[in-house]
Design a protein that fits this description.
The chain is an alpha/beta fold. The protein is built from 15 helices and eleven strands. Helix content is 51%, strand content 15%. The longest helix is centred in the first third of the chain and has 34 residues.
């Protein structure tokens, strides 16, 4: 095992990367909201109150739509500092705001014109769609956003395969194009001044460019450069397998221990499936390794991959890395196959580390021999905690017994959702500062 050396843990006085990124995003959104308000005022108030509300909600809907694109663009700078899971959560909540502002825009505009013409609101909407350029496109865009919003609700999302949900979600981009052409056609603030026109073209252009760069151009370029292939498939036990991958110039791939990729194995029956799997060893510039538990048809099929199989990988993604350390020492808590990024992190980390590996039985302790060797080499403490899920074996009392100084450590937690939630509650009860707790949901966007 060869680890890529990393610098010592940063001092606590250093600004947290996540905080810097959050402030940057909030500031960007606030600045654009102020600019939109200025252009709204410049366009004038020569309309009734309902039409003014309709214009204002429409403008902020356009701004939120552009912000949505930025959140899902998977830009490396943002992803390393905030993490795909949190960016996806923000995307979800921004989507609710977008949905309500679009509905408000449609309702206020329709009622405003109906008040002026004395028409029934439904007849007024039909008349606008038939006679005003761009309105029909806006109605179609709203319908698409409503459909995407419906399938993204938790209950509906759980019933859909990721591939189905993702295909439906792609219609959001159609809605974006339709909404933009509607704004160009009838938006009074869009044409109020050359500055306003330049601003809106620049905003939409930057948002779409971010998506194209992060979701298409960068993955294609990296895969063409690195040409990844499977070199070996090694069973770890009856249910877990490790896949070893190599390629060209892997020393120039900006991957860190704790991160994950979206992996596509280019066989005839798997090329269309993308699965998020963490690196289970620190990148060494020559090979990559992922270790996967058979939790479904896709992950179970990895056992049958042939050496030489081409791989298309999107990433690296995730903020579950040493970049976010605030203390010299660490506590690493792994549950089940969640040990994969923990094992990789241990390989890279400097300073004293304590590792808690939580499993039902010793037979479930995947990669434990490697953990033991690493712990011995790095002077770390390793505790294997076994037993059934109930009662919980990682109670606050047990955590403080095993690691008396845990409030002075960074804590990394990765495991099944139930275990992770329980451990996070315990850490809060024990007074571990939030900035020292690091966890990430390793899953596909959405």
């Amino acid at each position: 095992m060869t680890a890529v050396p990393s610098p010592p843990a940063p001092p606590t006085a250093r600004r947290r990367p996540e905080a810097v990124a959050r402030v940057g995003l909030y500031g960007l959104l606030a600045a654009n909201a102020a600019v939109v308000a200025v252009f709204f005022v410049q366009a004038g108030f020569g309309a009734n109150a309902l039409l003014l509300l309709g214009r204002l909600t429409g403008l902020y809907a356009a701004l939120l739509m552009a912000f949505q694109l930025l959140l899902v663009a998977r830009l490396p700078w943002l992803d390393r500092r905030i993490g795909m899971d949190r960016l996806t959560l923000w995307h979800r909540w921004t989507g609710f705001g977008l949905l309500w502002t679009l509905l408000g825009h449609a309702v206020f505009i329709t009622l405003g014109y109906a008040e002026m013409s004395s028409m029934d609101p439904v007849d007024q909407l039909v008349d606008l769609a038939e006679t005003v350029e761009g309105v029909l496109r806006a109605v179609v865009a709203l319908a698409l956003i409503l459909v995407v919003g419906a399938v993204s609700a938790r209950r509906a999302r759980r019933r859909l395969a990721y591939e189905t949900w993702h295909f439906l979600h792609l219609y959001t981009y159609v809605a974006v194009v339709l909404a933009f052409t509607h704004q160009v056609a009838v938006g009074s603030s869009f044409t109020a001044s050359p500055a306003a026109t330049a601003y809106w073209y620049g905003l939409w252009g930057a948002a779409l460019a971010a998506v194209l760069a992060g979701r298409l151009v960068l993955p294609l370029w990296r895969n063409r450069r690195h040409r990844l292939r499977v070199t070996a498939v090694v069973p770890e036990n009856d249910h877990v397998v490790s896949v070893h991958i190599t390629g060209r110039d892997l020393d120039r791939l900006p991957a860190r221990a704790g991160q994950f990729f979206l992996w596509r194995f280019l066989t005839k029956d798997r090329w269309w499936q993308a699965n998020p799997f963490s690196l289970s060893a620190a990148p060494d510039g020559r090979t990559l390794r992922l270790t996967v538990k058979a939790a479904g048809d896709g992950s179970a099929a990895l056992r049958h991959l042939e050496p030489g199989t081409r791989v298309f990988a999107e990433g690296p993604y995730g903020a579950f890395t040493a970049l976010h350390r605030t203390r010299p020492d660490t506590l690493l808590i792994a549950g089940g196959v969640g040990v994969t990024p923990i094992r990789a992190l241990l390989e890279e980390l400097h300073g004293h580390a304590v590792v808690l590996h939580r499993v039902n039985t010793e037979a479930d302790a995947v990669l434990h021999d490697e953990l033991r060797e690493l712990a011995r080499a790095k002077g770390a403490e390793l505790h294997l905690v076994t037993g059934p899920p109930v009662p919980d074996r990682l109670t606050p009392g047990e955590l403080s017994r095993l690691v008396p100084d845990l409030t002075d450590r960074d804590v990394y937690v990765c495991g099944p959702p139930g275990m992770t939630a329980a451990v996070l509650r315990g850490l809060r009860e024990l007074g571990v500062p939030k900035r020292q707790i690091h966890h990430e949901r390793f899953s596909l966007a959405g």
